[in-house]
Amino acid sequence: MDLRLSEAAAFVAGASSGLGRAIARQLLREGCRVAICSRNTERVSAARQWLISETGCDPDAIMALTADVTIEEDVRAAVQAASDQFGGLNLLVTNAGGPPTGQIDDLSMDDWREAIELNLVSTITMSRTALPHLRKAAASGSHASILMITSLSAKQPVPSLYLSNVARAGVQGFSKSLSEEVGADGITVNTILPGYTKTDRLRHLSESLNERTGKSIADIEAGWAASSALKRIGTEDEFAAAATFLLSPRAGFITGVALVVDGGAVKSLL
Ligand SMILES: NC(=O)c1ccc[n+]([C@@H]2O[C@H](COP(=O)([O-])OP(=O)(O)OC[C@H]3O[C@@H](n4cnc5c(N)ncnc54)[C@H](OP(=O)(O)O)[C@@H]3O)[C@@H](O)[C@H]2O)c1
What we know:
This protein is of the alpha/beta class. It contains 8 helices and 7 strands.
């Protein structure tokens, strides 16, 4: 299926590795122009080179920006730079790293504030900042869409991930509210909820659980795989394919949804 993305310009946050970078790769393969950001100039520049070699795209189609999405000024400057470079923006993917593990007695109030800043407030900042650009695109008849990466923990809280469980639920509320408001402008807003997917984040999670519980990393990963209906951990490519479809004009009548990409780990009916 032609996703009709070849004219689009995208801003993908948190994309020096993992799920963000995988979405950037798929968007480039569809012919999009893509700006990626992360906190670290070296890592985000290396990701740009990797994306060029993976996709064979025109180097002008991929832009690397250093920006911490918890800093409003960074977000503003990065989004403006991407829009200036590409002559506007059609797509926004909000993303950042995940918060640490911990139970109620392990976490300080600073941990809570940092997690809310990292995963909820940053999503609001990025959306508010990109909206004028997306509204402009939609008003001129182009496709415009926001996709927020959250987690299966927004639907089914994960025992060791209090911070994620709470912050992601907030993003779901924000996304649904925003989809109602900007639908009339022609902008779609959706969330995508990864289940256990092989990335650096998953490796750090298994190491942290290994330290806290003494369980081996192999056993932890086997437990995650067993929790899904498909009995395995997902790949970045599988996640990126679903995300790219949701961002595309082909998903033009889909807004306000929360798509779980988890191999059947969430057990609820709806
Ligand atoms: N992988 C999974 O199984 C899974 C499951 C459920 C939910 N999730 C969630 O999905 C999101 C992406 O996961 P992932 O597995 O791709 O994680 P990852 O491999 O750790 O990648 C996170 C990316 O975000 C960037 N980043 C972190 N903090 C940032 C900040 N403040 N500003 C800008 N960029 C920032 C990192 O780059 P720099 O370090 O270079 O800044 C990196 O490129 C996370 O929120 C994660 O919790 C993942």
